[in-house]
Amino acid sequence: MALRRKTPMDDIDENDLHVGSLKHEAAGVTAVAVAMKRSLQQMGPYRTARTLLKLNQADGFDCQGCAWPDPDPEHRHTAEFCENGAKAVAEEATKRTVSPSFFAENSLADLQDRSDYWLGHQGRLVHPVVRRAGGTHYEPISWDDAFALIGEHLRGLDSPDEAVFYTSGKVSNEAAYVYQLFARSYGTNNMPDCSNMCHESTSVALAETIGIGKGSVSLDDVHHAKLIVISGQNPGTNHPRMLSALEEAKRNGAKILAINPLPEAGLMKFKNPQTVKGMTVGQGLADTFLQIRINGDLALWQAIGHVLLEADAAGQDVFDHDFIDQCTVGYEEWAAGLRVLDWDRVESATGLSQAQIREAAQMLVESDATVHCWAMGITQHRNSVGTIKEFVNIALAQGNIGKPGAGLCPVRGHSNVQGDRTMGIWEKVPDHFLDALESHHGITPPREHGLDTVDSIRALRDGKAKVFVAMGGNFVSAAPDTVVTEEAMEQAELTVQVTTKLNRSHVKCGKTALILPPLGRSEKDLTGGREQRVTVEDSMSAVHASKGPLQPAGPHLRSEVDIVCSIAEATLGTSGPVPWSDYRADYTEIRRAISITVPGCGAYDEKVDQPGGFVLPHPPRDTRTFPTKQEKAVFSVVPMSVLEVPEGRLLLQTMRSHDQFNTTIYGLSDRYRGIENGRRVIFMHEDDIRDQGWSEGDVVDLVSEWEDGTERRAAEFRIVRFDTPRGCAAAYYPETNPLIPLDSTAESSNTPTSKGVIIRLVPQQQDQDASEGRGDAVGSDEGHKSDVEPHVMS
Ligand SMILES: Nc1nc2c(c(=O)[nH]1)N[C@H]1C(S)=C(S)[C@@H](COP(=O)(O)OP(=O)(O)OC[C@H]3O[C@@H](n4cnc5c(=O)[nH]c(N)nc54)[C@H](O)[C@@H]3O)O[C@H]1N2
Ligand SMILES: Nc1nc2c(c(=O)[nH]1)N[C@H]1C(S)=C(S)[C@@H](COP(=O)(O)OP(=O)(O)OC[C@H]3O[C@@H](n4cnc5c(=O)[nH]c(N)nc54)[C@H](O)[C@@H]3O)O[C@H]1N2
Ligand SMILES: [Mo]
To answer: Which of 298, 312, 706, 783 has the maximal Cβ count within 10 Å?
Structure first.
């Protein structure tokens, strides 16, 4: 029998949904108006002015939004932020707070019926609270008692590997450093992070090919590229300040090739809100738009490789043979593999014609400085690592690494996700990093690799992990297979959530559960009686300081550094080799440790003193040296693979609306895609709607099918006709996470395949369970077999 779960959907009245037309331009006057409106609603005029003028300024704080870099200090605007950055700040700096009485009035069961949208809108958490084992409510707890409780649980485990320490990419370098130092002093490498669900495929592919898992470009390279390729990314919504960089590049003569199943507004046209001319006239962005089928990118780049090889063979100057000879290995094998190509397979995989692909390849032929940008549309597929290796192959063949105006530009998500990795938040951190911890701190870090996100869920599910600590984030909503993940979390003996806002991970929690509220980045941090600053690293390896201007949301908040050091003391005592209290008293001490133990961070504190900070070394970018095993950049031979979608099914990608930050739902307006006042929509091609026997506006359930025969359901999505390739559908995350099987992950990176889920549409479930709770996932372990025919209405 299928297992049904009540899912909290009632907070949003989807009957108010309005579907308007798709927009072809991003930003402009509306963006400014929305930014101001949301800021004033949440923060009021004084805090709005205090925060927005300090945002992304050299003496201010780093935006909590995306990881796109800031321009040099002398090139920054007074208003160096975007609409969605302003929303991110307003979300944190809101004047609303959740007091302990809120938890007295709302039982855990009540809160479980609430969506992330409602939970997040209650305001900032301002007091530590605990849910005792068997308790029906969260209740206040003192910080000291909370730390003691954590220490007791951690000391009571049979092995340190029964604990899991998750990190979300907003955590500062200082907090991340002490957090990983604590986990390793305690004895585990179980440090999953949001990166496991995000750019892990990038990190794996780049580490194996160029020897370092980070992008190789600077902002200046983007400004001076001849060609910018943007694959699987929606910058108008998720990295709006990237549009200014693209605009500048275009002014300098760059061409843009955008590859996406959807004609995203920001890719098509941009109205720069920071200049008067930009605001009124706007700039067309993509010169060529390839409307690719979902998961067709590997086939596309192999075809482009094939066309470039033809041009090279014809004597055209497309490859940098000196670079290939001096700096790479494996060119011949790669070239041999691509000289023969099955064009029919490429055309069906990509949905593009040979002529379109040849035209795009011609843009690469004509450019001697190409920047390749990509994000989640590339990294969250089964064959992601292979696809990214194929980008690298092309970049290497053309010598587009380590030269001005060229390079690899994975566009990171969370504002400090890259910094957290640099600081050692990584379940597979290399031995040289552990050696440095061992020799500097005198600890004995464990050497075995730890659990990543997906494996942590398995360990919790199977009772192998018993304590789950999260430094930020919303693990249960962000992770795949929501029903499985929530049940896994509820089995934990203790969960600890260090978080600024309420979310689903607080209500689908362990038997004993703590919520510990930290200071946000926009707030003054006076830990240890002095004004502390922290540091962060952006998507282009630039590190800089960040210092919040605001009074904290409440008097009881503690900094993340303070919380980690206090947990460490409560668990390991105060007489060990690591001086936790010194670190808490003055973060400069942490930076001193960073400068000694973290590669590339020598004289760290001094370097972050420079306005704008400093850029971490990157051997391929700086000197065309490649720290791989072979000491050269490596061409890869990638077998062609395409997701086969059975008749009557659709390939679903799960993506962000314009009004959310991951699982934080700011509002219900996906303006550029024409959706207002609702989120449970499925975007489809009009011919698929018709052929599958549906009509626009029908409300259906989505059922995903996994290869072991199990099925999962997400209820009540309204069909919206959209400009997307045949057979490809799109819907928002996290509402669709129940559909993603835990075992459906990318090869070698283990990233959930959030952009490639095979689904079918079924009529809304009318059975008793469903009317109780409007249905949700079908439990995978219940073995509910795929016995339903594809839905065809007569
Ligand atoms: N405002 C805002 N900013 C954010 C975030 C946010 O939620 N809100 N999240 C942050 C985080 S953590 C991240 S990782 C980034 C995410 O930034 P994005 O990667 O831009 O985020 P998604 O919404 O997942 O968009 C994926 C894009 O890939 C396309 N796509 C899907 N499948 C395919 C495919 O098979 N091939 C190709 N070529 N394209 C495909 C989709 O149509 C969509 O345009 O943004 C960061 N910035
Ligand atoms: N289906 C599907 N699933 C996905 C994705 C997808 O595209 N599709 N994208 C994946 C990606 S790219 C990512 S990065 C993950 C995101 O996974 P997470 O990073 O775990 O999720 P967020 O929604 O960013 O976390 C939001 C919560 O962080 C807390 N928070 C906010 N600011 C702070 C702070 O300053 N300090 C602390 N301590 N806490 C804070 C708040 O409580 C807030 O509720 O989701 C992944 N999941
Ligand atoms: Mo991300």
So the answer is: 298
Q: Is 736 in the pocket of ligand 2 (CB under 6 A)?
A: yes
CA 505 to centroid of ligand 1, rounded, Å? 23
Share of the chain above pLDDT 90, in %: 82
Q: Whose CA is nearest to atom 39 of ligand 1?
A: 232
Q: How many CB atoms lie within 10 A of CB 791?
A: 16
> Is the minimum distance from the CB of 291 to ligand 2 under 6 angstroms?
no
For residue 67, how far is its CA from the centre of ligand 3 (angstroms)? 10
Angstrom distances, CA of residue 50 to CA of 241, 554, 769? 21, 17, 50
Residues 299-308: what's their mean pLDDT? Answer: 98
Torsion on CA atoms 448, 164, 193, 578, rounded to nearest 10: -70
Give the separation between CA 591 and CA 286, rounded to whole angstroms. Answer: 42
Instruction: Report the 10 Å Cβ neighbour count for 362.
Output: 15
Whether 238 is in the pocket of ligand 1, judged by its Cβ within 6 Å, is yes
407, burial (CB in 10 Å: exposed 0-12, middle 13-18, buried 19+):
buried
Q: Is residue 192 in contact with ligand 2, taking CB distance under 6 Å? A: no
Cα of 443 from ligand 3 centre, angstroms: 32
Q: Cα torsion at 377, 378, 379, 382 (round to 10°)?
A: 100
Cβ of 507 less than 6 Å from ligand 1: no
Residue 249 in tokens = 């590049």
Task: Answer for the pair 624, 630: CB distance below 8 angstroms, yes or no.
Answer: no
> For residues 575 and 582, is the Cβ–Cβ distance under 8 A?
no
Distance 471 CA to ligand 2 centre (A): 11
Q: Which two tokens stand for residue 611?
A: 């306005």
pLDDT digits (tens, 9 = 90+) for 86-102: 899 999 999 999 999 99
pLDDT number for residue 58: 82
Query: What domains does the chain contain, in order, with CATH numbers?
Result: 18-92 (no CATH), 97-192+428-602 (3.40.50.740), 200-410 (3.40.228.10), 650-778 (2.40.40.20)
Other CB atoms within 10 Å distance of the CB of residue 220: 15
What is the per-residue pLDDT across 221-251, written as a single tens digit (0 to 9) for each?
999 999 999 999 999 999 999 999 999 999 9
Nearest-atom index, ligand 1, CA of 239? 47
Nearest CA to ligand 2 atom 11: 198
Overall average pLDDT of the 328-348 stretch: 97
Q: Does the C-beta of 657 come closer than 6 Å to ligand 2?
A: no
